[in-house]
What we know:
0% strand
Amino acid sequence: MNGLLYFGTLGIYFLGTIAYLAYLVKPRPQLGSAARWIVFAGFLVHAAFTLARYFEAGRTPITNLHESLSFFSLTIVGVFIIFDRKYRISILGSFVTPIALLLMAASMLFPMSINPLNPALKSNWLVIHTVVAFLGYANFTIAFGAGIMYLIQERFLKQKKLGAMYQKLPSLDKLDDINYRSLTFGFPLLTFAIISGAIWAETAWGTYWSWDPKETWSLITWFVYAALLHGRLTTGWRGRKAAILAIAGFFVMLFTFLGVNLLLTGLHSYK
């Protein structure tokens, strides 16, 4: 059953991504609506898969890379649906759903088996810390997508090539607003995730902070987004500079989440 729900999710996300990319080429309202409903259906199936794995494992399925990549994909789609309902910008899905699809597909590279939980992970802080972190990461993914769209739209304006693609993309002000809103949601979530992680570390290992690679890169990620928000709020960083930093922050965040686990060893290493 779990395998059917998993591959069903993957297939529906694939169809939704194709629909959104087709909408990017030919932005017809019917196509955008179809893409929206396909991805929403994929989200429901994905949530069912996550819930089924929860009951099978007896724990929240976020303790290895297969589960974490899947859960990250789920939160991206969930947060995207919220932003899509607020802003009604279907083309945002053309830049966000491919990321969710790639993460879900990447989860196939790691074992799907359910193994006994590491003693250090047997804590109520597991759900609090990881779920909040992934929700923050999902908001940063929205900021990344909006940042990419901003740079594309700005390039068209500077070159005065107001062609078909320019007409498809939202205004620079709207894209900058999406960037800002996603950051204002994501940053407090990341902050709480780091604080809760420190509390969890003290109960598990007897120290709040040990400069483990995961902890170090989480702090680097926090400083990147803190600098971006500080710049926006105090020195008026907007537009291009904010978009570039949101994109850079996304790659730092991605390394914190995935690169540290694959390339570095430490207390947080898991596969």
